[in-house]
Amino acid sequence: MLRHLKNFRRNPMGEIREQKKISVGLWVFLLVIFSFLVISWRYSPTEHFFDEEGVYELETVWHGERQSESVDSLPAVFAHDENGTATVYTTIDEKWMEQGNTLCFRASQEAVRVWIDGSLVLEQGNLDIGIFGQAPSSGWVMFRLPADSGGKELRIELSSPYENYQGLLHKVYIGTKAALLFAVLHTYGLGFAVACLLIAISVVLFLFYLLFFVRKIPGSQFLLLAVFGMLAGIWMLGESHMLQFFTGKLAAWYNMTMIVIHLMPLPLLGIMEKLPDYSYGRICRGGRYFLMGYLIMLIGLQVSGIRDFMQMLNISLMILLLICVGNLFLIYWEFFHNHNKKILPMVVAITIFSVFACMELTHGLINIHRALGSYLQVGVLAFYVVLCVFSIRTTFDLYVQGLQSEYYKKLSYVDQMTGCMNRRAFTEREDSWVPGGNDVLLMIDLNDLKQINDVMGHHVGDVYIKKCSDAILDIFGKLGDCYRMGGDEFLFWGTGVPEEKLEKLEEELRSRVQEACKDISPVCGVASGHAAATPEDRSVEEILKRADEKMYENKRYVKM
Question: 131: which of 137, 252, 303, 373 is 20 to 30 A away, CA to CA?
Fold first, then answer.
């Protein structure tokens, strides 16, 4: 403990204030670098772009098998039968081959079959997939045109059990396969990268939480932020339109995405519940329990085949929208009406996130064909950045306050003149002592301190005390704790120190003190006596009494 105190005193509170100044300087430095990079990006010339092979929107006239009107622009909804199946067809133009040999379009909750001149060339999606719903999730449909397909009929069958997606054909693109893949990567790669970045940040925040947990520093907000970041990252992966680059388990990813959308509010409600002096923590807790129960109900409906996630999507969006709006109202009410200024960071962060979330959910309800993600991704990033910055800053302030508290607490256990532990520190250790150990106590008394104070002055007596304490700390400090028990009394408390070694160290101490204090007075010196704990000892006082008796025996021997 003494060693920790000595190391701690090397970092005074002035250094803590200096660290705050350094952190401000670091933020200024980062702001300058960021500003330079933004300006450089904005005003730098555009160089050659890596997309020599173009991707073109297919220009043709599409016909529906069950409708008389043709369609020359996509996306469009074609007539379908009672099973939700629509069939569209067109004639392959020989000029298409000049643009590429591969067609690509996106299917939304649809099973797709493609024929060329009556021959089936592609079948994607399965309408009978059990507990995973009635249809596959959205995915890219990509197929190669045969070299001799000019003038032949291209027929596409689209089947979906969901009314909102029946007969829906998105834009069809043509190009080489490499160009189409690059176009997908170029269009949706940023969202995929952001998702991976969120997951990476959540891992770092979780490591922060573990660090604080081990050091017993409050840091539960980092755990909740890490969980939210992980869920948001998984959700963004599901919405990135990039998963077909890595896996064919699109139905499983779709279900995971839907579950994650319902789980994302849970850590946010947990963060709000733990806000300082927040009056509506119980409402947040109730909201969490409600969402968990609702999600379990959704899974039960999905597995039983009664209703699946897509059929419950509108209800889910309404519930999530109400939760966002309701909690936004409670946060503002708490801040403005209840005058709880401690929640300002959450007010800023949750406001930014809720605005984007409400825009996303509202737009999703109005336009069901639009894929979720655009607004909410921006909102998640903004929320994450703001809340992480505030959390890191708050945690740093708490850490500094903890250092200050620890500094003053440890300072109360130290004798300021000698650097040894004081009587208060000894008393606390004595109170927590447990019999049966191999403790060793060594009492040390300065010879003739009163005489030196009376004859030579207290300032000389202080020098005498300081030189003796320096010798005690130097010889015994590495073996245990050294205490100043009174004006001229010191105590060494060690564990497992052999008696032979202790006697040698006592002799070394006497020699060191006499050498260091010979310029003060020839009477300077120390008397000492030690005692080891025995199985019969029931208190430190019993050991201390034996050490004290030996010390006085040594003092009488020295003065003879």
Answer: 373
Distance CA 17, CA 551 (A): 46
Strands 173-175 and 480-484: unpaired
Domain boundaries of the chain, sorted by first residue: 56-175, 188-407, 423-559
The two tokens of residue 18 are 């200096």
**Residue located via tokens 């010390």:** 551
Q: Does pLDDT of 23 surpass 70? A: no
Residue spans of beta strands (DSSP E) within 35-160:
56-57, 62-64, 70-71, 76-77, 85-91, 102-107, 111-116, 119-124, 139-144, 153-159
> Residue 49: pLDDT band by 50, 70, 90 thresholds?
low
Distance CA 453, CA 459 (A): 8
Domains 56-175 and 423-559 share a fold: no
Higher pLDDT, 229 or 398: 229
At residue 133, the pLDDT reads 56
Instruction: Catalogue the long-range contacts made by 300-308 (C-beta closer than 8 Å, 24 or more residues apart).
Output: 302/131, 302/132, 302/133, 302/255, 303/131, 305/131, 308/133, 308/134
Instruction: Give the count of alpha carbons within 13 A of 143, CB side only.
Output: 19
Distances (CA, A) of 271 to 49, 268, 278, 350: 44, 5, 11, 11
Global model pTM greater than 0.70:
no
Residue 359 scores a pLDDT above 50? yes
Q: What is the CATH superfamily name and number for domain 56-175?
A: Galactose-binding domain-like (2.60.120.260)
